[in-house]
Structures are given as structure tokens and as C-alpha cells.
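Predict the 3D structure for this chain.
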Amino acid sequence: MASKLPTFIARSHLWKWMSVVLALAIVVLLGYGATQIVGAVSPHMTAQDLHLPPQALNAPVTGVLPDNQPLHAALTFKIDPKAMEQAKNKDHRLAENNNLADTLGIKDSDYQRIQQFFQGPGAKLQLSKSRTRMTIDAPAGTLAKILQTRFVVHQLNGETFFTPDPKKMPQLPNDIAEKILAVTGLDNYGAVAQSSLNFNPTTAQKSSQAQASCTYASGAITPAQMAHAYGADSLWQQGFTGKGRTINLVEIGSFDSSDTQTYFDCIGFRGTLETINVHESVMPEMGETALDIEMAAAMAPEITIKNYQSYRTGNGNHTAGAWLDIDDALNRIIDDNTGTAHAGDVVSVSMIGGETYFDQNVRDAINQSMQVLSEGLGLTVYVSSGDCGAYMSGNTNNLEVGFPASSPYAVAVGGTRLYTDSVGNRTNEIAWSGPIVSGQSCNNSWGSTGGLSEVYARPAWQKGWFGVENPTYTNGKRQTPDISAIAINVAFTFNGINGYAGGTSISAPVLAAGMVLVNQKLLSAKVALPVGPQQFYNLNTAQARINSAYYDVVSGDNHYYTTTAGWDFVTGLGVPNLVGLASTMTSPQPNNGRLLQLQSNGYMYLYNGQGWHSWTSIAGNTALANVVANDNYIYAMHKDGTILTYTGGTVNAWRIIGNNTSTIAITADSVGHLYQLRKGGQIWQYGGNGVDNWIELDDNSLTTAIAASGNGQLYQLRSSGQVLKYAGQGLHSWTQVDQNTSNKAIAVGGNNLYVLHTKGDIWQLIGAPGPG
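Done. Predicted structure below.
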């Protein structure tokens, strides 16, 4: 006879058995990956915000994505800023310094946790070599179960796209979610990937005979003319042809090898073309891909061109989903360069979309990929700025720049129209701008895109150059483009036809390949390689102007902004003189360490530092009365009070920035400030951007002299013997540092202030400033 167990013991065992059964039931209900019944809310899970706009999520649902529909998603992991700073400061010429997995990547334990969560039928995970990104290929049904959602199909304005069910957004465990910067590929709504190619075939130029003749339409800029106009051929003659260096092209289509081979034969290309298929899909042929390849070859005759073709069947070419393909290509380039030596190599991207049309996840993912390329690996990324003028969205009521060009890690390359003589000597270069016809879309024909980002703050390095601080438009946001190159009427072979093409798709690879030649010269001179867009702004020196590092573009507009002297929202800093850039970068000499002479006949000379009679003439005008300089600029004052700044390149290449007949003296410090003293004791500081844009600092009639030190400190001397320093807070903001009726003159040397007394004594200000 069975004995009866105490009631409390029986209940205890019963509860244990019920717990086991319940746990098994939950596992069956949940399937794989998830930790909660579909649709329920868990305190340990985080719903993922895909940053889709309300109009997308609220668009009518027309169906459910089939469970067997292949999806390609990606997780972009957050990077520790300190780790990125360490990677940024390494010497990328050494292969061992490019092993990003050691500094930037996620830990093994984190990866194992993520692997475990994403297990499921048909799921394939791939972690990048840098360990900063992971792709997930899986059927829609598998991902839906793992993420506790379903994928639905919407229709909006004639477009069909899919998203996760807005009522059941994807769920991730908290410990995984906190490591993720962006989730991409769970929808295909967003900005369309646009190439910027416009192709115009040459009349009666099809056939192998026409190809063999290497002739192009009248008015087309030939490869030789283009290379000569930017100084590439001069660098070839010095032995810098791109040999041993690589340009990495990001493409979403293929090309006809007979087109590129015809072009190669015509220009005598001796480099290497290598195609990398990022995905296994069969890719359509695109003129864009052929164009990028041919432009790179034209500028660097022995370069290695790596063509990263990224396209997935069923994704649709030039759709929002193509941006994930582009990010895949960027990360394949990261993988291929992780742990390798690749100093001087570059990346070129000719795809573009309206900045605000991107969902934030896609934009964040691509932005970080470019950061890893630029700062993590030392590969500068050149991106077409766009071809719709000031309206990248194609809507003339909406000012918009293009992305990825607006990324602070990209060199945004605008477009110009180049004019040359028969051998390629430049005769003129203006902004590229096409007509806007009412009722017609942009179709990559409105011209060079530039303006203000709505997403990214203006980086600290985007400063200094005349025009960057624009009193009308500057608002603290990233400004584009950074620099420009030819974008219209360029000879090009496509579909067996020798024709000509247009678009900033030309500008990006032309500049990128040209800068490879510059990098080669820097490597030869054992000079540290500059990286990223800041390298162009950092050349805000008098030496860069003397070498004509840039040709300023001062004619044209983009249907809203106009070109100006210096930097502008149409062409950036202008177009490159590759020889001048290379000369400036290989021998940077701040002007405050050099010597200027002004002769009585009005001729001004700059000492080249190479021995006896080593002077360069930069001005010849009998009206010259004074000259001053700092690291950035050379300034001159005429006898009539006119103030000018040297723009570089030739004798008498000067621009007027002050036009007041009361001016009696000028001085400049080493941090970029220019000051003038006017009759009546008025002291003014130049505010940049135009003529007579000056800020008043003082108006004491006793002031007789001004002087500025190397660290930016401004001093004045008054007839009473007072010496004062400017406190930097507006009009009349001065502090007395000395008082002696014997004080006759002041001067600075470096950061030191010196005073000359009437008896000839010279005194140096030391210690705490104050009277006496």
C-alpha cells in the first residue's frame, strides 16, 4: 500500500515538473534565437528603431514577404572612439599597423553571443576581418522568427518596398543591441543609388575601325588634354605613374572589357585591372563602371585598378537596397586592406543620393565604413558630390547635398567645365552647370552639387581658407564640395562607341587617381602621407599659393550658390594643380620662417632658401608701401591704403581685401589674423570674405603703432607711452602691459614683445603683464 506523502512535499515536486514542461513549451513556441513569444514585450529585449519615416511605416500594406525570400542584412558595430584615435595615429605604411581587429573589432565572446542568437535554418553569418561589421544571409521567415517580427510589403507613390511589421519591430537582446550602431537590410525603403553618368555618343563612331582611330567628338576633352591640364603628365615625367599603387573603385554593376581595352590601347595604359565580385550574382553592364575605370587609367598610366563590383540578383539596380551592396563593397575593401601595406592607395565612389532621403541606419553604417577606411586604414575616400546643382533631391524647392559626399570622412568632389588648347594647356575652367527645364527631372544634368549638410556638423578642419566662413550661408554644418575636377565633355568609350560623358562621376576618379601620383612623390620623399579631406584644407599656406596648389574657379554657379574667390559651395577650394600640391606637401615651409623683400621700385620677392640670388618675384607695383605675412597668407599695402592678399602662381596675382584711404599700417600674426591701423587711431581686424569686411577693435587717437605676435596676441602703442594688449572681447577691450613715456616703438619676435625707448634701449616684456 502506497504511503501518502506530506502535502507540501507533493506540491513542491509537482511545481518542479510543471516548470520543466513549461520551459519546453516556451522553447517550442519560440523557435530559435528568440527569448520571448512573438509579439510579447521582454524586459531583456530592445526593439530596433530602423529610423524609417512615418510615410513609409504608415503606407498601405499589400502583403507579406514570402518566408523563402532571401534577405541580406548587416550589423554595424559601435567603435570605441579611443580605439579609433589609436588606429588613426598609426603609421599606415606598415602592414602590422593595419590589423584593425586588434583595436576596433568586437571581442570573441561578443561574437559568440551574436552567433548563438542568430542561429536558424538557412542563416549564414560572416564577420568582417576588422570585426566591425557582420552580414547575415537568411530566408525572411528565419529572420522574422529570430527577431520576433514579420516582413510586410508596402506601396507608396507607385513604389513597392518591404519593412518589418510596424506593429512588431525587430527585437534584439539588450546585451547585443548595446553594441550595435546600425542594422541594415531589414527594409529596402530609402534613397535610390544614382550614378552621375551622362553619355553622348560621337556621331558615326561605332565599329572597330572607329575605335582603333582613337578619335572623339569635336570639343571633347581627350585623356591627354585632361592629364596635362591638371599636371599629371609632369608627375609621370618625374617617374610617378601610379605603379605599385592602387585605386579601389566601388561599383554596383559590371562593364564590357572590350570598351575598357579599347580605351587602354588608345592611351597606352600599362597598369593592371582587377575585378572583385563582392557577391556571386550576375551583374548588369553599366557605363558608370567603365567610366570610372577609364578615368583612373587616364590619370595614372601604371596604376592598379581594383574594381569592386557589388550587386545582388533580385535587389534591383539603383534601388534603395543597392546602398547595402555599396556598404558591402566598402567593407570588402576594408577586409582586403586589413593587415596589409597599402600606403598611398585611395578609394573612389561615384554613387550618390539625396542626404535626407537615406534612413539613418544606412547612413550611419556607410559613414562608419568610410571612417574605418580613412582613419583606421589611411585610405582617403573620394566621392562624387552630385549632379543636381544645389538640389540633390531633384526638387528646386529643397536645397540638399548628396551623401556619402557629405560625410566628414569623404572628400566631396564637385564638377567643372574645363577649356584647353589643342595640347591641353588650360585656357579657362568654370563651374559645371546645366539648364533646369521646367517640368523635367534633374537626370544628372543640373551641375555640380554643393551646399550645407543637414546631418553632419562642420568638422574642425574645415576652416581657414577664404570663403569657408561665409557670412550669408555658414551655419555650423558640413559644407560641400571640398575640391573639384572636370565633369563634362570628357572622352569616353562605351558600348563600342567613342563618345564623351558628363557628371561628377568623372571628377571623383580623376582626382583620386591624380592624388595617387602625389602620394607616390610623398612616399619617395619619405614624407608622412596626409589622409582624408582635411589634407586639402591644411594647405592653407602662403607656400601653397606660391606653388599654385589649386586653380581657383571663380565663374559659374549651381543654381543657388555662386563661385567666389577662395572656397565656395559650387567648386570648393577649386581644382588641383597636382604638381603644385606635390611640391607643397613635400616641402612644407611656413612663411613666417621665410624672408620677403620689398624694393624701392615696388618689386616684391620671396626668398626660396636655396643660396645666393634665390628669390621669386611675386609683385611689381610702385604703389607698394608695406608687406606682412603669416603661415597662411602674404599681405601687401599700397600707398593709397589699399590692402591686398597674394593668391599665388604668378607675379601680381593679388586680390583686394581692404580699400580704405585712411589705412597707415598693417600687421599679421601667425594664426591667421590680419589687422590694420587707420588715421585717428582706429584698429581693425579682417573678418574674411570680401572687400572691407573688417571688425573695429579700438579708436583711440593716441595710438601710433600696432604689432601682432606669433601666438595671436595683438599689441598697440600710444603716444603717451602706454602699451596695451587686446583682450579679445570686442571694441575697447584692451589691457595695459606697460607705461613709460620713453616708449617709442614696439615690435614682436615669435611670441615675445619688444619696446624701443627714445634713448635706444630695447626692452622685452617678461613676467606677468602690468604697468611698468
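The CA atoms of residues 530 and 669 lie 26 Å apart.
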